[in-house]
Write a structure and sequence with these properties.
Blueprint lengths: L1 H17 L3 E6 L6 E7 L2 E6 L4 E21 L7 E17 L3 E6 L5 E13 L13
Parallel strand pairs: 3-7
Antiparallel strand pairs: 1-2, 2-4, 4-5, 4-6, 6-7
């Protein structure tokens, strides 16, 4: 049993190394500005499916044009952070979610110029069948 648990911990330690970076670059044909958004690490591993996964994530972005940019988590009205008259920026934030989430870099016109996904994985899937313990007395 100890070897099994040791094997799981080794696997957990190696998972972030395998997928340490997520880079997604979006370039519109009508807009010559290109931008990239990088998440390090790009994966958060929880022990059981459905648990909230906590991970400190470094967000780095860069753009070919100087401008006002904000990083948003999908479906949230408030930005995580904004930069004024910049071409690049970094931010460290505490990710906490039970599912994978998309992060977006938006310009001053609220157009998405780059996005990257923070993947949530788990070691054990949720047990769909509950164990029933029967007692006669």
């Amino acid at each position: 049993m100890a070897r099994f648990i040791q094997g799981i911990w080794i696997a957990l330690l190696l998972l972030p190394v395998k997928n340490a970076y997520a880079i997604n670059e979006t370039t519109a044909t009508t807009n010559p500005v290109s931008a990239s958004l990088l998440l390090t690490p790009a994966r958060c591993v929880a022990l059981h499916q459905g648990q909230i996964c906590y991970q400190r994530v470094q967000i780095s972005w860069s753009s070919s044009a100087v401008g006002n940019y904000c990083v948003y988590m999908e479906e949230q009205a408030q930005p995580l952070h904004c930069w004024q008259e910049q071409t690049q920026g970094t931010l460290v934030f505490e990710f906490a979610s039970d599912s994978s989430r998309l992060l977006q870099l938006k310009n001053a016109q609220q157009n998405i110029v780059a996005e990257a996904s923070m993947e949530v994985a788990w070691v054990y899937k949720a047990n769909t069948r509950r164990k029933t313990h029967w007692r006669l007395f």
